[in-house]
């Protein structure tokens, strides 16, 4: 007996499926309720009639990845997620044309995802044709990806029910939309020695040798970083340009409290590997010098890349952006004057030593111990002097307007 996605106990050996896709969909619904991702595995197919006589589906962590011997290092490092998990589901076709369970194993050798995280696993993030169309229209209208995701989540009753991967879809769309002429023009412009003999640029290629990300910087930007390298803001509030490429900028503040630009990039593929490449390229451009402190937004892929790419840099979340997310996630709490006062005191009117005290008092006074968003994100604000937050929140605010 197993538990279906609605919590009902069912006998796995009595299940009946129309075809292998029907079986895959059922197993995937079971997998999200159990907290793992699946993939298609082995199968025997009747080549003459075009249907499978048997088909297996496994946990995405099944097997062990073989190390490939190659002279040239891979352009794109792939994370090894395999750990030899045994969980699997096999169906077999009967003479009636229906498929029934032939083999079943529910044994996992790894930690399963929690209900609030399971929808982020790969097999649960598929997007249908209608959602493709909605996503493309939102992108054409320059609606921010986070706002589009929030809208979709509201439509389906929460992010835990949002089983689509807008970021992956947009990355593919943007990458495919770049023609050969555009790529050549970009490289020619960057490589023109008459424009700036000290101009620095790098491009990242995908597995198909197509440009996926671009970074550039000139000598004046390098000189500014050499002087004002202590605080750097990686700003993505520029959203996208008319060609659907997200524009990012490395920014700082000089001794006149003016914004200075240290570098810029076009991100076609917003993945962990891409952000890792971007930050490592930035350090290469600055001759190995890393920012003392880096301020970013809460992009999950970016947060995962920073510890590896910039291990010696102190990472913070920009308070202005935290405040915008709070308005979105805490909603009606800001109608309470006492909460709003405590919130502002937490962010702007205390120093590092007082943070824990102010935080605990706010949580106790407003009974917010079970608020998942606060527990997940707000502890990131406890590091760094509050005057630093103020400088960058003001400057970032100007950029986004």
From TrEMBL:
<feature type="domain" description="FAR1">
    <location>
        <begin position="26"/>
        <end position="113"/>
    </location>
</feature>
<dbReference type="Pfam" id="PF03101">
    <property type="entry name" value="FAR1"/>
</dbReference>
<feature type="domain" description="MULE transposase">
    <location>
        <begin position="232"/>
        <end position="324"/>
    </location>
</feature>
<dbReference type="Pfam" id="PF10551">
    <property type="entry name" value="MULE"/>
</dbReference>
<dbReference type="InterPro" id="IPR004330">
    <property type="entry name" value="FAR1_DNA_bnd_dom"/>
</dbReference>
<protein>
    <submittedName>
        <fullName>Protein FAR1-RELATED SEQUENCE 5</fullName>
    </submittedName>
</protein>
<dbReference type="InterPro" id="IPR018289">
    <property type="entry name" value="MULE_transposase_dom"/>
</dbReference>
């Amino acid at each position: 007996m197993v538990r279906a996605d609605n919590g009902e106990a069912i006998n796995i050996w009595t299940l009946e499926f129309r075809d292998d896709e029907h079986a895959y969909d059922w197993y995937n619904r079971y997998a999200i309720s159990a907290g793992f991702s699946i993939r298609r595995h082995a199968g025997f197919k009747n080549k003459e009639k075009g249907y499978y006589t048997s088909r297996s589906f496994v946990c995405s962590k099944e097997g062990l990845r073989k190390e490939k011997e190659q002279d040239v290092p891979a352009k794109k490092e792939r994370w090894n997620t395999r750990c030899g998990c045994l969980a699997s589901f096999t169906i077999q076709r009967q003479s009636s044309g229906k498929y029934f369970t032939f083999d079943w194993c529910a044994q996992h050798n790894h930690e399963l995802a929690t209900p609030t995280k399971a929808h982020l696993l790969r097999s649960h993030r598929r997007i249908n044709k209608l959602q493709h169309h909605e996503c493309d229209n939102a992108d054409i209208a320059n609606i921010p990806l986070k706002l589009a995701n929030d809208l979709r989540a509201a439509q389906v009753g929460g992010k835990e029910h949002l089983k689509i991967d807008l970021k992956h879809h947009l990355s593919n769309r943007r990458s495919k939309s770049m023609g050969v002429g555009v790529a050549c023009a970009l490289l020619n412009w960057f490589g023109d020695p008459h424009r700036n003999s000290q101009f620095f640029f790098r491009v990242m290629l995908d597995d198909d040798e197509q440009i996926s990300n671009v970074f550039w910087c000139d000598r004046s930007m390098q000189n500014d970083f050499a002087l004002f390298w202590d605080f750097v803001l990686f700003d993505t509030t520029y959203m996208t340009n008319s060609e659907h490429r997200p524009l990012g900028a490395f920014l700082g503040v000089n001794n006149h409290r003016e914004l200075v630009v240290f570098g810029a990039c076009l991100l076609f593929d917003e993945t962990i590997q891409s952000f890792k490449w971007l930050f490592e390229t930035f350090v290469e451009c600055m001759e190995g010098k890393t920012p003392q402190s880096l301020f970013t937004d809460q992009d999950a892929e970016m947060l995962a890349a920073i510890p590896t790419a910039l291990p010696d840099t102190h990472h913070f979340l920009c308070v202005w952006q935290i405040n915008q997310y709070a308005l979105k996630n805490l909603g009606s709490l800001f109608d309470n004057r006492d909460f709003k006062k405590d919130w502002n005191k937490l962010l702007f009117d205390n120093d590092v030593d007082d943070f824990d005290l102010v935080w605990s008092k706010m949580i106790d006074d407003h009974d917010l111990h079970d608020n998942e968003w606060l527990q997940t994100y707000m502890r990131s604000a406890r590091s760094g002097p509050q005057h630093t937050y103020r400088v960058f929140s003001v400057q970032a605010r100007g950029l986004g307007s």
